[in-house]
Structure formats: structure tokens, C-alpha cells
Amino acid sequence: ERERERDTMARLMVLVALVVVAGVGVVMPGAQALRYEVRGRVVFPAGTDKQVVSTTKVLLDGGLYVAHLAQDGSFAFLDVPGASYQLEVVCTKFRFTPLRVDVSQRFDNNVRAFHADYIRGSVPVRVSYSPSEGLAIKPVAPAMYFEQRAPFSFMSLLTNPMFLMMVVPLGLMLMTSQMMANMSPEQIKEMQEQSLFNTKQTQQMDFTETLAKYTSGGTAPAAVKDKKKPKAR
Fold first, then answer.
1. Bridge partners for 68 per DSSP
2. What are phi and psi of 145, to 5 degrees?
3. Fewer Cβ neighbours under 10 Å: the N or C end of the chain?
4. H/E element, 78
5. Which comes out higher in pLDDT, residue 31 or 187?
6. For the segment 39-85, what is each residue's pLDDT rounded down to a tens digit?
């Protein structure tokens, strides 16, 4: 009988321990995971189409949480755990600056927001959070889907290589013709004779004589000259 009582007591103790562990596992997560609200309003320019407002969405962490806008542009994220999020406004007509939103009970109204600058890495710009309306998000520019054609620029034409290849030779030709027009007939004749003489000299030049001239200090060797002169009989 004592052994049975001991077995029964042991079983009861094990059962109580299991119940206590299960109760702690159910209570503790609920006590630690605090939930918050993130509210705000997207301020559109006057005259914006209602369809644009109805199709605009607000995303947390790329779509982990999604909020649609009301008619006045307000939105709300409910039951959000404490963490740091990236808030983006997805709109077909306007561009919005993404925000970094920190959610914790340490901050005023449990929310702290900054402009998220991931490219330049400049000093974070604080965004105010109102207890009644939350964040006020305004567009920075209209959404552009096509690159605008650059206007005509005279400087870009001057720096174009194809334009330079056409204009520079033409300019040289005009300058040469202008110089020829200002020269006297005697100068033109002298220049033509000089050009003809240089052409003949170039055609009659012998490589061996030129090499011997530069290597001997200006005079060709006698052996080379003898080869050119016919022997007298």
C-alpha cells in the first residue's frame, strides 16, 4: 500500500509540474509581446483624384503590414509589435520619402520616425508624430515613368565628335584657300616648285645613303659612293 501511495504521489507531482510549465508557456509570450498602433495621414495636393487616394497603400517592411487609405488619406496599423520598421507610401502619381519608424514604449506616443536616407547617409531628420493624427506624410515630387528629352544645347553640339570631324577639316580648307588668295603669283610659283622638289627628293632618296649620312656625321662612306659611280675605262 505504501508503494502505491508513493506511485500516486509521484504521478500527481509530475502532473502538477506539467500544468505549471504549460501555464507559464501560455502566459509569458502574451506578457512580453506588447502591441502598439501606428497612425498617420497622407496629405495629397489639392485637386487630387479620389481614385489615386483609393489605390494608394502604406507598407511596413515591404508589405509585412499593409494599410489602405481612408477618403481623407488617413491610415492605421493596429496590433504592431515593438520593433524598427521601414514605412513606404506606394502611389502611382506621387513619390514619397520612405520613413524609418521605431515602435517602443520608450518613445513619446510609443512611436519615433525619421526620414530614411539609405543613399547619402546624411544625418537623420526627425518626423513629428501627433498623438491625435500620427504621421503627416507629404509627397516630394510627381512620379516620373519616362525620362524627359534634354533640350537643345549649342555646347553639346560643339563637343560632339562627329561635328568636330566635319567642321575642323572644312575650316582648314577655308583657311588654306584664303591664304592662297592673299599670296602673290611669285610666291605661289615658288611654293609649287618647292613642293615639286621635295616630292622628287623623297622619291629618289636611298635608304643606305640616308643611313650612312646619319652614322658618318653627314658624309656617306666612299664605298657607298663608288657603287653609285660607273668605273672609267
1. 57
2. -105, -15
3. C
4. strand 74-81
5. 187
6. 999 999 999 999 999 999 999 988 899 999 999 999 999 989 999 99
Copy the grid coordinates of residue 200.
622628287
Helix (H, G, I), strand (E, B), or coil: what is residue 159? coil
Taking the whole predicted model, whether its pTM rises above 0.90 is answered as no
Q: What tens digit of pLDDT does each residue of 6-30 get?
A: 777 777 777 777 766 655 444 444 4
Beta strands in 82-175 (DSSP E): 83-90, 94-95, 99-103, 111-115, 126-127, 135-137, 141-142
83 pairs with which residues across the strands? 103
Q: Reduced to 3 states, what is the DSSP secondary structure of residue 45?
A: coil
SS3 4: helix
Decide: 114 and 97 in contact? Cβ < 8 Å: no
Grid cell listed for 106: 520608450
For residue 115, what are the β-bridge partners?
99
Give 88-119 pLDDT, tens digit per residue: 999 999 999 999 999 999 998 999 999 887 66
Which one, of 93, 95, 87, 106, lies nearest residue 34 by Cα? 106
Q: Do the beta carbons of residue 41 and residue 137 sit within 8 Å?
A: yes
Report the alpha-carbon distance of residue 97 to residue 114 in Å, rounded.
10
